[in-house]
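DATA SHEET
Item: assembly model
Revision: 1
Owner: S.N.
Input lines:
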Amino acid sequence: MSLPEPGFDYQGCLAACAQGQRQALRELYDLESARLLGVARRIVRDSATAEDVVHDAFVRIWTGAGSFDPSRGSARGWIYSITRHLALNFIRDGARLVPAGEEDEPVSAVSEQQPGFDLQARSAKIFDCLDQLEPSRRSCILHAYVDGCTHAEIAQKLGAPLGTVKAWIKRGLSALRECMG
Amino acid sequence: MITHHSDERPDELQQLAGEYVLGTLPGEQQRAVQARLQHDPALRAAVDAWEQRLLELTTLAEPQQPSPQLRQRIERSLDSLGSPAPSTSRQPADSWWNLLPLWRGLAGAGLFASLLMALALLLGDPPPATPTYLVVLVAPHSQAPGWVVQASDRQQVQLIPLGETVIPADKALQFWTKADHWQAPVSLGLVKPGQTLSLPLDKLPPLEANQLFELTLEGVQGSPTGKPTGPIQFIGRAVKVI
């Protein structure tokens, strides 16, 4: 379980980073590095590469803190977005060492609850909305967002045709948007 | 550079933004979205909303304790950066490295390499070994040569000024390289006008023919994004020396 630290002022932290206060970044590191590394590790599938991603993310948080715009979203969200997109860039550059589909997860039936996604006891709205999705669409969204899978990798994982996976993602996204507003 | 997407329906924009945040767009489309985000407020708003909607899914990834070295690595990288770049609320309208016509047009600049090779080799202090790659960096508009890059092996390059480059006091020159199949340029660091630099390329793939080198004008601390954001001052491609 990894939830944001309720008492921590993420936006204040970024403002302090923008002022050149190294201690602010250290506090952010203490608080978030393990979670960010977990997010990156899941996408790039390799601990050393994941550390490269988190390294780059913290450098970018530091150098970009001054350009953070709170009207565009939460400071914590910004930090996670930077990390995820760096991780996604890494695998798109062909740097993923373990190809998707070769790790422990079996190619499973579509309706099966995917291993690795424990949706129980999650209170955020997104989990309610995911719960309402058809299982195949839910799996697509989770494999893409959490595991950084491409359409083709998801198709392989779910044993479904590529076109079907694309349609599932499309409808899954529409349904999520409708559910979450 | 100006992209209009007036024929794009709102739900198409939402799909594009959603898939961008999911990470399922093909590489080229992903980069196209990244470029559009700089100047397309509707797309930016849609992407921001998706980032917020899906953010809690990051809690599904099991946290992992970083190695003790990671903190030190980050600290060292920040030391080498100095203080953060001054706050800039706006990015330039577009990233020049996404502009295909520019790259194509620059192929012609390679001609300068052959013309100026002799000149470069005559410039006093010859390097200890014969260079195997040579790049003449020219100003994009005037095509006036400003710097030479030479490599005597594929792991080390030298950047040599051919003249005096004048830049504003609150700016710095940042040196970049990009091979054809790389997705984006990689920074080789800041360069002072008139400075001769020797740089190891050991963190990068070996130098190859046609590899692009350029100097862009950035803030004094270098590009805040890790990618070129300022105008190109000098640019050229590597030519193998026979």
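QC remark: The radius of gyration of chain B is 21 Å.
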